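User: I want to check something. If I give you two sequences, will you return the structure for each one separately, not as a complex?

Assistant: Yes, each is folded on its own. Here is the first sequence with its structure:
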Amino acid sequence: MNNIKVIERILSNLTFKKDFFVVESYPNYPSNRIGIDGSGNIVILVKTINLSQSFFNDINTQNLSIYFDKRCSICINETRTIEFYSILLLKDHSLVYYFINLFEILVHKLGEKPELSEFKEEVDNLRMLFNKATVPGLKTILGLWGELFLIATCDNPVYAIHAWHKMPTDLTDFNDGELKVEVKTTTKSTRTHHFSLSQLSSIINPNTIIASILTSEIDDGLSICDLLDILNEKISSQDSYILLSKVMDVLGDKINFSSDFKFDSVTALSSKRLFRSVDIPCIKETNIPNRIRNVHFEVELDISKSIKKDIKSKFFKILNKHYV
C-alpha cells in the first residue's frame, strides 16, 4: 500500500514554479496528484466529487493545510491546465511518511474519487493527528520499537493492535481484558530492565506478563518506520489508521527523527522471552521509608523463569507463536 520511496523520487525531481502546482500522477491512484506548490510545500491534490454542492471552510494548522474543491492551476509533464481538486498541503517535510501513509489509508477507505462531504469528515481526523507534536527521546523510541516489534512478530497483529494502549490509564502496554502485557526492551548485554516501584507493585498478579526483548543499534537494522511498513502489508487500512494514530500519540511530528535509530531484529526475535509478573523481584513498599517517593530500580531477569506454556489465554498463544 505504501508508495513512500516512489513518491520521494517523484518529489526530488520536481522544480517549483510560482503560481502553479507542479505535480505528477499519484502512484496507483491516477485521478489524484502528488507534487509541490509555488513555495516548495508538498501537496496532494484529491479529485473529490461535490454532488451536493457543499461548501467547507479551509483548515490551517501548524503542519497541515486543507482546502476543499478549489480551482487549481497545475503543471504536469510541462503541460499546464486548470482543474478542481481538494488540496492537502504539508508544511513540515519531516512528516512526509505520515502524510503519505494517512492519505493512502484515506483513499483506500473512501475510493480514488471520494465524495466531498465524506472526504471532509475523514480529513478532520487527519488534522487532529497532525496537531500532535512531541520530541521523543531514545528511551521512548526504543520502548515504542519493542512494542511494535512484539506486534509485528505475533501470530495475529490485528488482535495485538486492538489490545495495545486501549486506555490512557492502563498501567501496561497491552490489555485484551483477560491478559495484560508489559514490554521491556533493552540494548544492554544483560537482560536488565528498568521498573518503577509504583508500576511493578500494581501489576504483580497472575494475569500480567512481562515481555523481555534484547536488541542493539545497528546500521542495517529495522526502524520504527520499517516495522510500520511491515505491519501495513499485513493489516487493513482501518487497522493501519488505528496503528498510526497510536504511534502518533507517542512520536507526534518527529517520525523522521525516529528513523535515525535502527535496531537488530534478529537478536530481538531470538532473545524474546515472556515472564510472569509475579516472578519479577520487587522491593516491598512497606520497606520504603516515609517521604521517599518515585522509587525506580533495575532488575536482571532470570531466563530460567521464562514461560512458554501454562497460561490459558488467547493473547498469550498469539504472542507465543514466534517464541524462540
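And separately, the second sequence with its own structure:
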Amino acid sequence: MTKVIVIPADLNTPVRVDNLGGLEDYQRTVGGDIETIAYLEDVVPYFNEEGKLLGLEKNARATAILAFNMFPDDYIAGDCIFAGFDGDTGEDLDIQDETATYLQMTATKAMVDLTNGKEQDGT
C-alpha cells in the first residue's frame, strides 16, 4: 500500500490521505486509465487520462497546484492523486508528511480563492 493524497474535483469533498494498493486502486480512484505530468522530483500526480473527453468536472484545486507545469488554459479533469516518487527506481512511495501538508494547504488556499474567500467544507 502506498500513502497518497487524493484531491477530489468536487470542491465540497475534502482532500484526504488514502492508502492505495497499486494500478487498479489508482484507476478506481480517478475513474479510468491514469496519466501523469512532471511535477516535483519526488512527487508524482496521477489523474484520468481521458477526463476531459469524458466530461469529468474540472479539478480546480489540482489545477492550481500543477498550473506551472501545464500549458496555459489547460486543466486537470476529475480526481487527482499525489504520490511520492523514486526517480531511480520509478516506484511510487508514500507521500511525505511535509508534502502532504503542503498539498492540503495549497488545495485549501486554492479553494478559498476560487470561492471568493468563502470557505467551503472540502479542505
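Because they were folded independently, the notes below concern the second chain alone. The CA atoms of residues 40 and 55 lie 27 Å apart. Residues 97-114 form the longest helix (18 residues).
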